[in-house]
Amino acid sequence: MPTIRLASETDVAGWRQAARALRAGQVAPEETLWTVDGAGGDLFGEAGPILPAGRLAADGPAFTVPRDFVELADRVILHRSDERFVLLYRMLWRLAREPHLMRLHSDPDVQKAQHFARAVSQAAHKMKAFVRFRLVTGPDGEEYYVAWFEPAHRVAEVTAPFFARRFASMHFSILTPDACVHWDTQVLAVLPGADPADAPSEDSLEDYWRTYYASIFNPARLKVGAMMKEMPKRYWRNLPEARLIPDLIAQAEARTTTMVRQTPSTPSRRVVAAVHRTLRDAPFDGQGMRSLEEVQVAVQECRRCDLHCDATQGVTGEGPAQARLMLVGEQPGDQEDLAGRPFVGPAGQMLDRALIEAGIARDRAFVTNAVKHFKHELRGKRRIHQTPGAGEVTACRWWLDAERRLIRPRVIVAMGATAALSVFGKPVAIGASRQQALPLPNQAQGVVTYHPAYLLRLPDAQAAAKAYAAFVADLKFAAGLAA
Ligand code: URA
After folding, report:
1. How does the average pLDDT of the chain come out, rounded?
2. Which residue, among 204, 172, 195, 203, has the nearest Cα to 185 in the 3D structure?
3. What is the pLDDT of residues 146-202, one digit of tens each?
4. Would the pLDDT of 238 be above 50?
5. Within this chain, do residues 69 and 139 fall inside the same structural domain, yes or no?
6. Please, is 411 exposed, middle or buried when counting C-beta atoms within 10 Å of its C-beta (0-12, 13-18, 19+)?
7. Does 310 share its domain with 406?
C-alpha cells in the first residue's frame, strides 16, 4: 500500500496533486496511507513505498469536482485530525460515482467533513478575535507587536492576511505552534512554528520573542523566496510611509484592550452542538434557529456574502428576548466589530442619548442591525465604513428575520435607509414616511426614522438639532405604539 507524503500539515496543493493522480490512476481510498514530511512512522503503521505528493502526476482523463467540495477541502485540511486526508480522498473518489454527494447532508463522510470545516472556521474566527499583542522593543531598537496564540486548528497562515490588513502599519509577529507570521508593513512572512513546549508565559513573551526573532531573522537562515508571501497588489496603496506613528500605537492598543475586555462569553457546548445540527440539516434556512444565542453562534459561520472575510466577527442583536420594541440600524461600525456588540461607538452614544430623552430604557429594547458584519475599506491605517449593497442586505436579511421570528416585537424601528430596506423588503423614503405606523407581518408595526450616524454627520448645527429632535420624536412615537 503506497504512503503519500505531503510536504507539510497544510500542504493543500500537494494533497490536490496527489489526490488527482490517485483518482486518475484508480487507486481506491482504502489502498492509500497519508503522511506528512517529518511525521513519525508509528502513526500510520507498516507502510509500502513512500511517494512524495509533489511527484505524483495525473495519468488518465481529466475530471472536474464541484466547487463546494474544493472549498470544503481547503478548510478541512487545516483540521488537526489525522483522518482528514483520507476522508477527503474518499469523498473525491466517491464523487466520481456520486456527483450529488455534497448535497447528502446526512452522509457520514459529508457530515464529518462539514464538522471539520466548521471547527476550522471557528478556530480562525477565534484567532481573529482573541490574539493579544504586546508592544516590545526589538534587538534593532524598533517597536514590534508580538502575540503568542495556540489555535485549535492550523489556521495561523490563513488568518495572517487579515491581521496584515487590520494592522497594516504595525510591525508584528504572531507566534503559534504551527506557523509564525511576521508582518513588516510590506511583506508577510510565514515561517515554521514555535515549539509549543516553549510556550512563553505572559511575562516571558518578550524574551521568548527576542530569542526567536534573533534566530529566525538571521539573514543566512531566511529563505526569502520560499518563505515570503507578498500581499496582493491591491493592498500596496494602503501602506503608510511612516511606521508606528504614535497615535496609531495608541489606537491599536486601545483596540486590543477593547478586544480583550470585551471578550464575549463562550457559548455553551449545547448551543454550539444545536447550531451545528441546524446548519447541517437546514443549511439555508434561518427557521431552524431556536434561540438568540444560537443566532449569535451561527452568524460566525455565515458565508452568505463576502463581508465576513474582513470583519472581526459577526455582530448580532442585543436585548431581552421578549422585547416589544426592536431598533434596527445599518451594520456594526469599527468599534462594534471589535466589541461584538451593536451600537457601542459614537452612533451608539447618540442613540443612547436620544433613547433617554424619548423615555425608552435601552435594556428593554432589542437593538440590532440589518447587516451583521462590518463593511469597510482600509484607508491607510483607518477602517472606513462603507454602505452595504442591496445584495449584502438581502443576504443578511436571513439573520434579521431569524431575530424577528424569535423576538416577535410589536414595533420595529428602522433607523436609516439600509435598515428600512431590510425591514420592509423594499426601499423606503425616510423623510416622507416618518411618524407613521407601517404594517408588517405578524401584527407588528414598522416606524422609520433617521440613522443616528446621519445626525452626527450633519455639518450645520441648526439642521443637526432639528434632525435630532425629529429622531427623538420618532422614538417616542414608536414607544407609544409599543406600549
Ligand atoms: N451603526 C449602526 O448602524 N449600527 C451599529 O451597531 C453601529 C453603528
Report:
1. 81
2. 172
3. 888 899 999 999 999 888 888 888 888 898 999 989 888 888 888 888 876 766 776
4. no
5. no
6. buried
7. yes
Mean pLDDT is lowest, of 52-66, 240-254, 347-361, for: 240-254
CA of 244 to the centre of ligand 1 (A): 29
Distances (CA, A) of 103 to 93, 110, 112, 221, 363: 16, 8, 14, 47, 42
Pick the last residue of a domain from 126, 149, 175: 126
**pLDDT(58) > 50:** yes
Supply φ then ψ for residue 444, to 5 degrees.
-90, 165
What is the per-residue pLDDT for 55? Answer: 59
Cα–Cα distance measured from residue 32 to residue 156, given in angstroms and rounded to the nearest whole number: 28
Q: Which atom of ligand 1 is nearest to the CA of 370?
A: 3
Q: Which atom of ligand 1 is nearest to the CA of 348?
A: 7
Which atom belonging to ligand 1 lies closest to the Cα atom of 336? 6
Please report where in the chains the cell 461600525 appears, as a residue: 333
Ligand 1 — pocket residues by CB below 6 A? 329-333, 336, 342-343, 345, 347-348, 369, 453
Residue type for position 362: R
Cα–ligand 1 centroid distance for 452 (angstroms): 8
- The residue segments making up the domain with residue 417 are 269-482
| Closest approach atom of ligand 1 to CA 452 | 1
Q: What is the pLDDT of residue 194?
A: 80
Distance 369 CA to ligand 1 centre (A): 7
* Candidate from 331, 366, 368, 451 with most ligand 1 atoms within 8 A of CB, to mutate: 331
Measuring CA to CA, which residue among 471, 476, 469 is closest to residue 451? 471
Reply yes or no on whether the pLDDT at 46 is more than 60.
no
| C-alpha grid cell, residue 112 | 464529518
Average pLDDT over residues 63-67: 87
Q: Measured from the CA of 341, which atom of ligand 1 is nearest?
A: 6
Measured in Å, residue 125 CA sits from the centre of ligand 1 at: 21
How much distance in Å is there from the Cα of 343 to the middle of ligand 1?
A: 5
Nearest CA to 73 among 52, 53, 91, 94?
91
Between the CA of 235 and the centroid of ligand 1 the distance, in Å, is 26
**How much distance in Å is there from the Cα of 205 to the middle of ligand 1?**
36
In ligand 1, which atom is closest to the CA atom of 453?
A: 1
361 and 476, same domain (yes or no): yes
Instruction: Give yes or no: residues 244 and 115 share one domain.
Output: no
Count of the separate structural domains present in the chain: 4
Nearest CA among 348, 321, 309, 349 for reference residue 332: 348
